[in-house]
Amino acid sequence: MAVYFDHRIEAPESSDVPFQLSWHPALPVLAVASSSPASGGNVDLYLQQGEYVESCHTERPHQPAVLRWHPIKPVLAVGWENGDVVLLTHPSGDQPVLPSTHTAGITLLEWSSSGSRLVTGDQTGVLAVWKVDARGRLQGNHLVKHEYGNPITCCIFRPALPGDDVAKLARASVSGDETALDMFSWKGAPLKMGPQEGLAFYVSTADGKVHSVDEHCKTATLLSVEGSIKTLLYLDKRETLAVITETLMLSQYTLLPAGGAQEFMKVKLSGKSGQKVDIIWTENSLLITATGEQFIRLWDLERDDNYILSLDETLGFERGEMINCVSFCAGKEILAAGTSHGRIAMWRMVVQPGSSRGDSKAQWKLQTPTEVHGNVTQLQWGSSLNLLAVNNSNTVVILSEHVMSADFSQQVAAVQLTPTQLSITQFTSGLHVALQSDIHIKGVCVTKDSVTVWNGKQVTVYELSGTVLRNTGSFLCDSHVVAVYEENLYTVEPSRVQIRTPQGTVKQLLTFSKAEGNPVLLHVCQSYLAVGTDAAHIRVFDLSRRDAKAHCSAKNLADQISNLGALRSVKCNANGSQVSILISQVNGRPDHKVYFYDVEMDTVTHFDFFTGRPSSGISPQDENEKQQMQGAELSGRCPVSHFWDESEPRLFVCETVPISSESSSSSYLDMVDVSVVTLFCTQEHGLLLQDCYPKPPGLQALLALAVPYYYFSCKPGETDPGFTEAPSAPHQTQPARAPPAQVPHMVSRRALRDFVGLENCEKATRDAMLNFSFYLTIGDMDEAFKSIKLIKSKAVWENMARMCVKTRRLDVARVCLGNMGNARAAKALKEAEAEPEPEARVAMLAIQLGILEDAEKLYKSCQRYDLLNSFYQAYGRWQEALETAESRDRTHLRTTYYNYAKYLESMGDKSLALAYYEKSDTHRVEVPRMLQDDTTSLEIYVNKMKDKNIYKWWAQYLESQSDLDSALRFYESAQDYLSLVRVHCYMGNIQKASEIANNTGDRAASYHLARHYEGHDDIKQAVHFYTRAQAYNNAIRLCKENGLDDQLMNLALLSNPEDMMEAACYYEEKATHMDRAVALYHKAGYVSKALELAFSTQQFSALQLIAEDLNENSDPALLARCSDFFITHSQYEKSVELLVAAKKYYEALELCVSQNLTITEDLATRMTVTDSKDLSEEARKELMEKIADCCMRQGNYHLATKKYTQAGNKLKAMRALLKSGDTEKIVFFANVCRQKELFIMAANYLQSLDWQKDPEILKTIIGFYTKGRAPDLLAGFYEACAQVEIDDYQNYEKALDALTEAAKCLSKAKDSSSGQQELRLADLRHKITLIKKFVHIRRLYAEDAGDAVRLCESLSEEPDINPAVRVGDVLGFLIDHYCQQSNYQAAHRKVEEFNKASPSESIRHYISPESLQALHKTGLSLDRADRRHSSKEEDEVEEDLNE
Q1: Strand partners for 44
Q2: What pairs with residue 508 in β-bridges?
């Protein structure tokens, strides 16, 4: 909670009425312009508290028109009505005047973002741009001067483009970007670091035009609108320009890269006509206007949204109060508005969790107004201190925000109400008084007998005596912090702490060295004083003696804490052993840790609220404690205040807020998510979390911790449970001013978790409870029980049981319940042990102790929504129970509806109960029961629902009332045919009952009617309706009793096996229909009995039917008997199946062989024994081989292969596959088996195929011979390949390669044939030699034909050439040569030589077509075959002529 101190400016008596204000953007310097029609105008400067700066007064006979501060330097530009522009410098008072440029009144002054440019404009449209140096001094004449012909109205500088990011450029350079690399080198332009100053700007004129001026001061018209322009706005995120005219017409333009502007939105802003309009613009794109109405309007240009903020009369505003002006503080996010009744309305922006700033009106919270009197015409936030200057038409008031001071000590609390008023509460006596001071209170310190206040310049001490506050001393002192112990006051000044009397007399000085710094923080607890300095040193002094003595040496925290900027707060505990410290980091942000300095051990530890964990040096806690800390949700928080208990040195409390809120220390008081964390701090056990207590709504800041209470400042009127106020005296202060008649309560206290219900206990019980809580926290149960074993109070034990809910110590809770004598709770807790979740068990304890809120949270945390639903129901919270069931516990949704309906019925709300009975789907029974006493309503409900079950219930009710006709009607509507037949039979309408039973086929109705006919000896009808009711046993019984044999068979076949067996026995005994008996025995599953009876009675047709149902599960002897029967009757296939079913596989196989029966896949599978109990493994393999042999004889090679494989004889399996000719399966089988013999067999088979045309087969053959390790066979295959190449293609090169591979393979083969392999290898090498010669000759021919011919002649004379090189190829080569040389005689000789060497072949196959044609032209016959062919043709011609 904050208050605003108001300081009126100390204006000189000669000053006139102020009309314009201007704050420096950073410095606390305010410029005020005032005017008088008689004397002209003047401009004065004032400091933070309104102090007048005499040296900076400027006065002229003209009126000041515009004030504008330099953005950085203390230089104020003042524009006058005569066209002069003065630069007023603070604090020197220098007033240089710009060279005469303007001749008319100044309308515009605007600085660039860094202050290097100043733009001036006047009423005649003259605009000038001036250059200013870094010290704010003018440099020469204007840079440029433009004349636009109309008054200049507005100017706005365009922000510069962001500079180059050095980190991004570095990464790009490393990755190889040459452009980025050049930017780092000296070749290019200097690298721009960070944002640059934007020198381009836009200027508007009264005729509605906007002109752009670039960095070189060149101007161009950008756009034009209707009317005079009032405001220019630049939206940086969208890079758009917004223009507002005097008629409140808003236009938005997109700035084009080429320099133009394109309008994309135009809207008329709402406002009261004829009134002065105040328009402001915020950084988050909010446009705020005040037009003299009771509200202000806000337009969110980024989201295209708008809304209004109104004044609230409940906060002190009056009806009809108008808002004249507005101003927004970005640093505090506060919107201030001045009203016509002299009030300052302030709205604080509150960010809700999960939302962003500026989303809706709900984020603006209106604060209590500040009174300044008069009519507020102008206000402005300014300086880095966020000061607010208010012009109320008479003077100027400077408002500075101050967090309300508060203090608590020795059961006395003081809270600031206004800048000069305190609310004093004495809890021991219940006294509540107010203190009105003569000074602005910036700090307060209380003891049980005194109240001390100060404002940084003066200290005043008041003595609290009974109901009277008496001023006992007041003295001047520049100390901004004061501490009090007994009769001593402690103030600070540079390098020392002063110990004073209440009248200000210095009794003792506590000096600090230069290294230790200046004391800035003081805190007293019991008899110990903790001092913190601006050099981050702390010292503790013992005040228990006459003079203060050092309790420890100075501790430099900067050596212990990294990133330490400054100390924020220092507090010591009751025995001076521990000091807690809050700090600010180097960047100025609050640290999220609380540091603890152990005076005796000289160590520093901490508790980190960002992680929710203490420092690593602290002793570890047990698992239960870890779970507790995790459940407390302490992570992501920051401490804002901290306190030690006044009497218990171990107990520490800290107030924390979420990390996102720690920067605004004054606004966290209004937050909901504030936690009060209590810790135990000891040397032995370190920091132990005792409790995490959410701040209750309505309370504000934590003031102190004094067992058994927390003390909070609160909003006015907040009640304090358990506090009884004493009657207030009529005069409460002397000689202070009389306070208001009613002083609001500003302090509220809440009991600690461990002391709920024990607030008024004696000190011994209080100490015992503290020890119990401490030992329970560290997990030492023995010491915990020792500390409370002597306590007999049930209230204490109940309170400790309540503590067990927070600590989740059910073992301790059982002991507490036992001492309480609460057997019911103990029993419930024992039953809850069956629940798997610990939270659910603790929740049951909470329920038994009446802590319903904790129970609810526990059930939710463990997601036991079924138990939560039951909990809501038990406590009558039906709406929450229904919501839980509908969203989380749908398993028990109908049960919840039913229970709620029962509750409503008990409460007499039958109409709503009826609806929930329907939702629970129990209305068919429950609604008739509920309405049975109200038959009229029940009948209406029955007719309305049209439900069969309800119809039936109502019909039964009518039947009980002997209204049979109506009952029949409702039975028919319910389709209850049994009841219809029953009632008709009762009424004697047998024919109608029969029609109903026949038409509907209802079994129950048919059975009832059959019993009725049987009772009246109508056997035929009884059997009929028993059959329709499927009560076949009753029908069979009647047929046997009455000799109805024909119907008996049909009924038995429809009935169950027992009835079939009974009927079959009946036929067998009568010996008249033995075929029926056999069929029934068979149908009933008694096959052996059926077969025996069939054999004995020679019923072969029935026997054949029975045999079809036999399988391997039947009796083997029976199967064999049936098989013999089928063999006798030449039904061999059926006999084989029965033999297989009987597991007589050999007999079945012999029968197949003898009778030439085809063995199918299914039969072979059934004959393949898989169970080793039937046959041994050897016998099983033998059987499968016989099956395979039989399949081979029958030509079923694939099945034979399968059975050979199952028998393990892969060789025979391959032979069977080879007979099948299935190449694909042969290759697959060989690859799977991977046996040498099989590879060789498969390769031999593949050679029989057309491998010359299929390269895949060729590769497979080579691969199989290689895998089969048969190099001799592979060599033979290569020889065959070579011969094919020679014979078919005359390709001796490939043949040579093949023979070479054959030689390699043959050389690897083992010789087992006594030298045959050597001979074969020698012959192979001879062939290779001959082929090589011939290949060489053919290649040589292109280079040296003569030499090649000579070599070929010699080759033709080689002995045994023909197997290797065909004679025809050699001689054909020579013939081709001689024909090319036209030596036909030599060619003819070679032809004759070929004919002698190969008389059966023709030379045509060996010579080229050209040579053949040339030889024909010579008339020479090529061979004998030609001559024979020629003579044969002549003979044929002669025969044709003779015919």
Answers
A1: 32
A2: 499
